[in-house]
Amino acid sequence: MPTEPAIALVIGSFHRSECETMLAAALATARDCGLAVTEQVWVPGSMEQPLALKRLLARDGIDGAVALGIIERGETGHGLVMAQAVIHAIIDLQLQTMKPVGVGILGPEIDRQQIGPRLEPYARAAVRAVRAML
Question: Which residues are known catalytic residues?
Fold first, then answer.
């Protein structure tokens, strides 16, 4: 009997309460899509996600992963630069490992009032993207 594909979730804790909403949506969507979430790793923020993803994707038992987090608009361009670096690193990891990573990171440059309505849709879309690529 075939087993469900196994995925890992990497969640940024800088916006912990919002990311818990994303986590719940991702878990429900994974279940609905026939994916087994075998690992959940909380990291300080989006910049730490590529390293956590690399460690997880190196495992034979992990077929893909989802990154969840928020890069909120700040007073400087730091968030934009950070987001570009994170997304670049995630794309490189996919190509190196040949394993999909769904990106459910809100922003960059997202305003506080834009976050709430996007939490669940972004998390669900990231899981569905991994499912499609598997």
Answer: 78
Alpha-carbon span 127 to 134, nearest angstrom:
11
d(CA 99, CA 94): 5
Burial class (CB in 10 A: 0-12, 13-18, 19+), 1: exposed
5 close to 30: Cβ distance less than 8 angstroms: no
Residue 30's SS3 state is helix
CB 43 within 8 A of CB 15: no
Residue 119: pLDDT band by 50, 70, 90 thresholds?
Answer: very high
pLDDT digits (tens, 9 = 90+) for 61-111: 999 999 999 998 888 888 899 999 999 999 999 999 999 999 999 999 899
